[in-house]
Design goal:
There is one protein chain. This protein has helices spanning 4-11, 13-35, 38-45, 49-77, 79-98, 103-131, 134-165, 169-189, 204-216, 218-248, 253-281, 283-306, 312-338, 345-370, 377-395, 397-401. The protein has 412 residues and is an all-alpha fold. The protein has a single domain, classed as MFS general substrate transporter like domains (Growth Hormone, Chain: A, Up-down Bundle). Helix 4 runs antiparallel to helix 5, helix 5 packs antiparallel against helix 6 (103-131) and helix 10 packs parallel to helix 14 (345-370).
Length: 412
C-alpha cells in the first residue's frame, strides 16, 4: 500500500484535486441538474408537490444514512474500491430513474443514487485526510471546491436546457454518464490512499464505540454543526425554490438555472476568499469572518418577508450571500471534522456526512409539508433561521473548539 506522500506522487497534485472534485460533484449533479425538471415531473406523473419533493428528500436520506456504513467500509477495504462502487451505484440509479414508468420507481432509483453519492463523498473527504495535514488539506479542499464551483455554475443551466429541449429524463441520463466516467477514472488512475486498513472496522461493537467516541469530540461537534446548518439551508432553498420562482414569480426555467448558477459563482468567490484568508489568518479566523456573512444572509432572507416585500431578486440576493459564506465554511468543516481522527478518517467523515444529510432531509421534509403555493414565507424564514444558526456556531463553538489539536488515538 502506498503512503500518503507516495500516493500524491503517483497521482500528481492535479489528479488528487480532480478526484476529490469529481467525488464531490456527484451531489450537486444529483440535485442542481435536476431542479428545473421538478415542475415537469409533477405534471407528467400528476403527483403532489410533496411526493415530487421525495425524489430529492429520499436521495438525501439514503445518502446520509448509508455513510455510516460506507465510511467504515472505506477504512476496512480501502478508498479505491469503495469510491469505484459509489460511482457505479450512482450511474445505475440514474439509469433506472431515466426509464422510470412512475413516480414510485423514480423515488426508488433516486434512493440508489443517494447510496452512490454517499460512497463517493465519504471517500473524497477521507482521501484528503489521508494525504494532508489540516492546513494543507483545507487548501486542497478549497481548490477542489473552487473547481467544483466553476462546474456548478453550468450545472443548473445545463439541467434547465436539457429539461426544456430533451425532457426531464435527459438530466438523469447525463448523471449516468458522469457516474460511469468517474468509475473508469478511479479504476484506471487512482491508487489506494488509506494509511492502513482496519480489519475490524465493520464489526458492530468497535463500530458503535468508534462512532460514539467521535460524536463526543468537541471539535467534531463544532465543525459538523457548522456545516449541517449551512448544508440544510442550501438544500432547503434549492429543493423548494423552483416552484416559487417558475410558477409564482414567472421566471423561465433557464432564468431559474441562472439564479442557481449564480449561487455557484458566489460560492466560488467564497472558496477563493477561504484560500486567501487561511493563508493569512488560519482556518478558525477565516470561519469567524464568514460567520458574519451568514448572519447578513439571514437578515436578507428574513426581513423582507416580515415587510411582505420578497421578490425573485431579494430571494436571489439572500441565496447568493448565503453561498458566499458557505464557500468558506464547507471546505473548512469537511477537513476540520476529520482532522482529530487520522486512523478513522472514513468513519469521522461518514458520521459528519450523516448529520449533514439528516439535517437537510428534515429541512426538505419540513418545507415540502409546509409548502403553500405562491408564498415565500416557508422558504425565506426556514433558510434564514438556518443561515443564522450557522453564523452563530462559526462565531462561538468553532472559535472555542475548532483549532487543530494532536490526533486522538483510534478506538481499539
Amino acid at each position: 500500500m502506498k503512503t500518503g506522500t507516495a500516493a500524491v506522487a503517483a497521482m500528481g497534485p492535479a489528479l488528487v484535486v480532480g478526484v476529490v472534485t469529481l467525488s464531490t460533484a456527484v451531489q450537486p449533479l444529483g440535485t442542481d441538474l435536476y431542479l428545473a425538471a421538478l415542475p415537469a415531473i409533477r405534471n407528467e406523473y400528476a403527483a403532489r408537490v410533496g411526493v415530487v419533493q421525495l425524489t430529492l428528500a429520499v436521495l438525501v436520506f439514503s445518502f446520509g444514512l448509508s455513510q455510516l456504513l460506507w465510511g467504515p467500509a472505506s477504512d476496512r477495504f480501502g478508498r479505491r474500491p469503495v469510491l469505484a462502487a459509489g460511482f457505479l451505484l450512482y450511474a445505475a440509479g440514474a439509469t433506472v430513474g431515466a426509464m422510470a414508468p412512475n413516480i414510485e420507481v423514480l423515488i426508488a432509483a433516486r434512493a440508489a443514487q443517494g447510496l452512490g453519492i454517499a460512497a463517493c463523498m465519504v471517500c473524497g473527504r477521507a482521501i484528503v485526510r489521508d494525504l494532508f495535514e489540516q492546513q494543507h488539506g483545507t487548501h486542497v479542499m478549497t481548490v477542489a471546491m473552487s473547481v467544483l464551483a466553476c462546474l456548478t455554475m453550468l450545472i443548473p443551466v445545463t439541467g434547465a436546457l436539457l429539461a426544456q429541449t430533451l425532457g426531464w429524463r435527459a438530466t438523469l441520463w447525463s448523471m449516468a454518464l458522469c457516474g460511469l466516467a468517474g468509475a473508469l477514472l478511479v479504476l484506471a488512475r487512482v491508487p489506494e490512499t488509506a494509511r492502513s486498513l482496519k480489519p475490524d472496522a465493520l464489526r458492530l461493537g468497535p463500530l458503535l464505540a468508534g462512532y460514539a467516541r467521535i460524536a463526543r469530540d468537541p471539535a467534531f461537534q463544532s465543525w459538523t454543526l457548522l456545516n449541517a446548518f449551512g448544508y440544510a439551508a442550501n438544500f432547503g432553498f434549492f429543493s423548494s425554490s423552483a416552484y416559487l420562482f417558475i410558477e409564482t414569480f414567472g421566471v423561465s426555467r433557464v432564468g431559474f438555472g441562472l439564479v442557481i448558477g449564480g449561487a455557484s459563482v458566489t460560492y466560488l468567490a467564497g472558496t477563493m476568499l477561504c484560500r486567501r484568508w487561511i493563508a493569512a489568518h488560519g482556518i478558525v479566523t477565516s470561519v469567524r469572518r464568514a460567520g458574519f456573512l451568514s448572519l447578513l444572509a439571514a437578515l436578507v432572507l428574513v426581513v423582507p418577508q416580515f415587510a411582505g416585500a420578497h421578490t425573485a431578486g431579494t430571494l436571489t440576493a439572500g441565496l447568493w450571500l448565503m453561498l458566499l459564506a458557505y464557500g468558506i465554511h464547507q471546505p473548512c468543516g469537511h477537513v476540520g471534522m476529520a482532522t482529530p481522527f487520522p486512523l478513522q478518517a472514513g468513519a469521522a467523515s461518514a458520521l459528519g456526512g450523516f448529520i449533514f444529510a439528516g439535517a437537510a432531509f428534515l429541512c426538505g421534509g419540513w418545507m415540502g409539508l409546509m409548502y403553500r403555493s405562491g408564498s415565500a414565507a416557508v422558504l425565506s424564514l426556514t433558510t434564514g433561521v438556518l443561515a443564522a444558526a450557522a453564523g452563530t456556531i462559526a462565531l462561538t463553538l468553532v472559535q472555542r473548539h475548532g483549532r487543530p489539536v494532536p490526533a486522538r488515538p483510534a478506538v481499539p
